[in-house]
């Protein structure tokens, strides 16, 4: 997880900020115009002391009321022009900067969708959220204020100092006296502030993670009465963040103190020296007024440097944090093989970019050539299971369990020889973040699921079943070996083609904040409609959807929390089968269902499975019996393959696993 301990790369703030250029480029014309307008506005302010000098030495000294009125009018116009120009600057930058922030956020989101699952395993979601929201807000603020005003104030200070030196160079030198100590303080401050700003922003990420976990896990927290410990964890982290923010405030106070005090002392000294010079007759009163007015006009540009530097530093850290994610390598798209060129591959939605697709974990699926065999398989589905047909199903199931599985396998219409099914060739896998000396989760897996065959994958908890299924849609890359679909390596297929061929349903079903129907149709191409939706809902026995307030248009809440676990599982299953996938990977998809619903789903699934090559992770004999054969995963290897009955007879571990389940081992 990326947490507060994330190492900050040793990069200067300027170099970090320069990385924003590609995003700022389109807005450069407006930004430069805005900076120019601000410099003109600021310089207009510097003309005011010169008008004052003319007023004091001219009309005021000559007691000329008309001249005084003219001077006052001049001053008013200058003030008005200055305000107008600053307003224009704001108008110039507001829209393009909002666009910069939006496009950076869109890029981040797109990138996150394309990053491999192993990245998401490593990174806390709160860290990603804080980078996408708080950090990008800081970047926008930097582009709106410090970027322009560091330049504008710098130019204003230079022009002001030149004006003061031209008025009276000795007084000018007095004013310039604190410049060196102020600059040294700024350099020291920048370094220290960078460290603290980074720490604070990382801590915001950690805090976001805790809040997010608390909201998502509210049932567990309440169920186990963990609200106190959770509140303590939150308090500790927010206490840490508060400490860091206070340290930032102390640093800011120090630099602010130096930046304000030294120039003020210099102005005081210049006032004393100036008054003495006026008394000696070496300087006109108007020049002294103009000089002091210029010095006072420069107070804000000088004083603001402290917080402008602080904001810039925070923006540099935010940019660093943003690019830490953006620099992570995305999944390569796979071979360029077009979906259409693949055996049986659907050309689903191939024009749209992969990131616009449903996330693969949602169970994407395929548009298969709608051949007559496939259609008839789906037409055989019985969408309405009343209680009578349910008991019939169950009676048929119990009769068919075990003994007639091979017969059922034989009755499956064998697909053409060109299809070679799903094959693991000597596959070894170790999680990317696993310690180097730990044994691989999977070792030398050789497994063949024949075309049209359903194979159950059975193994003890933690034996690697989920891991093995995740390798097929390339959620993780195999460490060595090869996986082929109909003879074509999964790495040789483009990701689009792969995801068009394989549909996945996981044990923990994720639903998105959308209508129920949309959640299911995510698994199909854009052309799937009500008929496909109804068929998939029937297969998954998800008819409860029609009883929801708005039927398939009912919105399900965040992660589908308003539905029961079994209902969510059935929707995830419907999503997996809605696109009539060629290869179906089901990770214990019926675990949350009651026996009646499970039996009904199994009966309906059989029709789908008869025509699909499927790998089904199973813990219960009832799920195993959906399959033609069973593979036993043990110690990271395939220990045995056979029918349920064969393995029950010949493999003690398998017999133990199956009997243990009935005792509710899971
Ligand atoms: N993202 C990950 N990073 C590192 N190790 C992991 C990761 N996910 C799982 N593991 C480890 O891999 C092993 C296999 O896990 P996996 O989830 O595949 O088992 P499983 O057989 O599906 O278990 P279950 O039946 O409980 O679902 C476990 O030891 C687990 O700790």
TrEMBL record:
Residues 34-314 form the ABC transmembrane type-1 domain. It holds the Pfam family ABC_tran. It is found in: Cell membrane. Residues 329-412 are annotated as: Disordered. PROSITE patterns: ABC_TM1F, ABC_TRANSPORTER_1, ABC_TRANSPORTER_2. The keyword Transmembrane applies. One of its GO terms (molecular function) is ATP binding. Keywords: ATP-binding, Membrane, Nucleotide-binding, Transmembrane, Transmembrane helix. It comes from the Bacteria. The keyword Membrane applies. SMART domains: AAA. InterPro entries: AAA+_ATPase (IPR003593), ABC1_TM_dom (IPR011527), ABC1_TM_sf (IPR036640), ABC_transporter-like_ATP-bd (IPR003439), ABC_transporter-like_CS (IPR017871), P-loop_NTPase (IPR027417), Type_1_exporter (IPR039421). Residues 422-660 form the ABC transporter domain. Residues 333-342, 400-412 have a biased composition (Low complexity). It is a multi-pass membrane protein. The chain crosses the membrane at residues 31-56, 68-88, 141-163, 169-189, 251-276. This is ATP-binding cassette domain-containing protein.
């Amino acid at each position: 997880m990326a947490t507060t301990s994330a190492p900050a790369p040793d990069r200067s703030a300027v170099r970090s900020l320069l990385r924003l250029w590609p995003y700022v480029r389109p807005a450069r014309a407006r930004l430069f115009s805005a900076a120019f307008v601000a410099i003109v506005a600021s310089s207009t302010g510097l003309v005011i002391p010169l008008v004052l000098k003319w007023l004091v030495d001219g009309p005021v000294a000559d007691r000329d009321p008309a001249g005084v009125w003219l001077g006052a009018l001049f001053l008013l116009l200058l003030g008005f022009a200055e305000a107008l120009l600053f307003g224009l600057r704001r108008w110039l930058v507001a829209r393009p900067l909002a666009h910069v922030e939006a496009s950076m956020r869109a890029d981040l989101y797109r990138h996150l969708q394309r990053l491999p699952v192993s990245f998401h395993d490593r990174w806390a979601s709160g860290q990603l959220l804080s980078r996408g929201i708080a950090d990008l807000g800081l970047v926008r603020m930097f582009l709106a204020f410090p970027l322009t005003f560091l330049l504008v104030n710098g130019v204003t200070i230079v022009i002001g100092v030149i004006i003061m030196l031209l008025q009276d160079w000795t007084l000018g030198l007095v004013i310039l006296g604190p410049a060196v100590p102020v600059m040294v303080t700024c350099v020291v401050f920048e370094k220290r502030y960078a460290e603290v700003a980074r720490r604070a922003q990382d801590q915001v990420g950690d805090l976001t993670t805790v809040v997010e976990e608390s909201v998502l896990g509210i049932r567990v927290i309440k169920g186990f009465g963990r609200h106190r410990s959770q509140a303590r964890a939150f308090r500790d982290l927010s206490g840490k963040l508060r400490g860091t923010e206070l340290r930032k405030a102390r640093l800011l106070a120090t630099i602010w103190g130096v930046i304000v005090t030294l120039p003020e002392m210099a102005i005081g000294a210049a006032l004393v020296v100036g008054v003495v010079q006026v008394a000696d007759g070496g300087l006109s009163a108007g020049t002294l007024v103009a000089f002091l007015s210029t010095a006072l006009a420069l107070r804000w540009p000088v004083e603001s440097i402290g917080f402008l530097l602080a904001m810039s530093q925070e923006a540099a850290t935010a940019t660093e944090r943003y690019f830490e994610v953006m620099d992570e390598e995305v999944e390569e798209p796979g071979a360029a093989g077009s979906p259409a060129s693949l055996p049986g591959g659907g050309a689903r939605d191939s024009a749209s970019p992969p990131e616009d697709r449903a996330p693969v974990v949602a169970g994407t699926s395929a548009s298969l050539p709608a051949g007559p065999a496939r259609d008839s398989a789906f037409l055989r589905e019985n969408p309405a299971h009343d209680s009578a047909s349910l008991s019939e199903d169950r009676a048929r199931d119990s009769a068919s369990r075990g003994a007639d599985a091979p017969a059922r396998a034989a009755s499956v219409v064998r697909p053409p020889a060109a299809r070679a099914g799903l094959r693991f060739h000597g596959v070894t896998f170790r999680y990317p973040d696993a310690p180097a000396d730990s044994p691989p989760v999977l070792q030398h897996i050789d497994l063949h699921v024949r075309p049209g065959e359903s194979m159950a994958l059975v193994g003890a908890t933690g034996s690697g079943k989920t891991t093995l299924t995740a390798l097929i849609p390339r959620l993780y890359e195999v460490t060595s070996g090869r996986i082929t679909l109909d003879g074509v390596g999964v790495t040789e297929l483009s990701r689009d083609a792969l995801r068009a061929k394989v549909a996945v349903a996981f044990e923990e079903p994720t639903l998105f904040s959308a209508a129920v129907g949309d959640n299911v149709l995510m698994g199909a191409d854009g052309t799937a409609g009500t008929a496909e939706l109804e068929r998939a809902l029937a297969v998954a026995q998800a008819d409860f959807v029609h009883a929801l307030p708005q039927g398939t248009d009912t919105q399900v809440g965040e992660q589908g929390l308003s539905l029961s676990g079994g209902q969510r599982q059935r929707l995830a299953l419907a999503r997996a089968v809605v696109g009539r996938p060629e290869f179906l990977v089901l990770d214990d998809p019926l675990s949350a269902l009651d026996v009646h619903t499970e039996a009904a789903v199994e009966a309906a699934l059989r029709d789908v499975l008869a025509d699909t090559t499927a790998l089904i992770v199973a813990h219960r004999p009832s799920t195993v019996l959906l399959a033609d054969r069973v593979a036993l995963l043990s110690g990271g290897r395939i220990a045995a393959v056979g029918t349920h009955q064969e393995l029950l007879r010949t493999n003690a571990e398998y017999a133990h696993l199956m009997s243990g389940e009935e005792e509710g081992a899971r």
